[in-house]
Specification:
With 377 residues, the protein is α/β, with parallel strands linked by helices. It is 38% helix and 13% strand. The strands form 3 sheets. A 7-stranded parallel sheet has the order 3-2-1-4-5-6-10, with helices on both faces.
């Protein structure tokens, strides 16, 4: 049995707690620097807690399949009456966007159903929903639709209308809006997320770290696998710490209720400038973009699983499989965009959130964190 909560205690349930955003959320909520912090924090993930996850970040950890309503009810029934805030940073990706809509809607609906049907009465007051810039671009990872998509012009703004394609981000926003008389919510649209975890589906930094380690191990050049356009034009990122700060700020700020906010670091970079920084961090030779010959990066990297196994073994790293921790296909798509991937942070600033991070400087911090966690060499 859980101990009764003080009625003034803020209790967070982080769904997707072992991902990049979830880990930073847990760390931030447990800090005295967090608004109303430190909070009581429960974490949910599909798999058992990894060895690199600090026990101090959560008061209790649950691992179960939230697509299963009975498992959700069984695991959360004892804590459901105490939860005041849900931080939704989970996602499952399927081959088609329609399938992604179905599975992600089911997960969110199951969690809300269990929390709101708790006895005594639910204390749930706010849900934060993390989505992303696919809101403005459409389902870019659905190969049956990708060639049809016409994204909005950048910089992306929160008041841009929805695109006429299926999108599980839209579906989750609509679910939360349907509960607007029961609790408040906020939507947080990230760019390319950078943080530390081996449990995130789209992990750009870890993908690049694995690529660099393989290049170093085999004496291969650390080549940029994108286009000259993305090499020279602007892009942005979302540091997991800024995401955590914005989500907690919105959860306790009246003016931010029932609003959607972009969440990026507040600056921009070019992949040319990023490649110089990454080459230095990973201790590989900087190779300027050439572009004179085709480079099947995705195809080549998909054959390097055994090389990564050797690197893990030789360096005593946390046991991972390359295909489970990298996203070569998705990152290649980003590096072949024909537009500048940039979001406006004006609305967020107007509402009072002023968090920011220097993107290029943050790379070193997160790589060091991945090394401390023994995920990369």
């Amino acid at each position: 049995m859980e101990e009764p909560e003080d009625t003034h205690t803020l209790v967070a349930l982080i769904v997707g707690v072992t991902g990049m955003a979830g880990l930073s959320l847990a760390e931030h909520l447990k800090s005295v620097a967090a608004p109303s912090g430190p909070w009581k924090v429960y974490g949910v993930a599909r798999r058992p807690k990894p060895s690199w996850f600090p026990c101090s970040f959560v008061d209790r950890y649950f691992n179960f399949d939230i697509t299963n309503i009975e498992a959700t009810r069984t695991n959360l029934s004892t804590i459901a009456p105490s939860v005041t805030h849900v931080f939704w940073v989970a996602l499952q990706a399927r081959d088609t966007e329609e399938a992604s809509v179905a599975v992600n809607s089911e997960m969110l609906s199951n969690i809300l159903s269990v929390l709101l049907s708790s006895s005594p009465a639910s204390r749930l007051r706010h849900v934060t929903l993390q989505t992303g810039t696919k809101h403005y671009m459409g389902p870019i990872f659905d190969m049956s639709l990708a060639s049809q998509l016409v994204p909005h012009e950048s910089p992306f703004r929160e008041d841009m209308p929805r695109l006429p394609y299926p999108n599980f981000y839209y579906a989750l926003e609509d679910i939360l809006a349907s509960y607007s008389s029961t609790f408040t919510y906020s939507v947080h649209r990230s760019s390319i997320i950078v943080g530390a975890s081996s449990r995130s589906i789209y992990n750009t930094l870890l993908t690049l770290a694995v690529y660099a380690a393989i290049c170093k191990h085999e004496g291969m050049p650390f080549r940029y696998p994108g286009t000259r356009y993305t090499w020279e034009h602007f892009c942005d990122m979302s540091d997991a710490r800024v995401l955590a700060q914005q989500q907690v700020w919105a959860a306790v700020t009246e003016a931010a209720k029932n609003q959607a906010f972009n969440c990026t670091n507040g600056d921009v970079f070019t992949w040319k400038s990023m490649w110089k920084v990454l080459s230095e961090i990973f201790e590989v030779e900087y190779v300027p973009f050439d572009g004179r010959e085709e480079y099947d990066w995705v195809g080549e990297m998909k054959m390097k699983g055994p090389v990564w196994d050797t690197i893990v073994e030789e360096n005593g790293l946390y046991k991972t499989k390359m295909e489970e921790i990298t996203c070569f296909d998705a990152l290649s798509g980003v590096m072949h965009f024909g537009f500048q991937h940039v979001c406006s942070m004006n609305k967020s600033r107007d509402f009072g959130f002023l968090g920011y991070v220097d993107t290029l400087k943050s790379m070193r911090l997160w790589v060091e964190r991945l090394r401390e966690m023994a995920i990369v060499p």
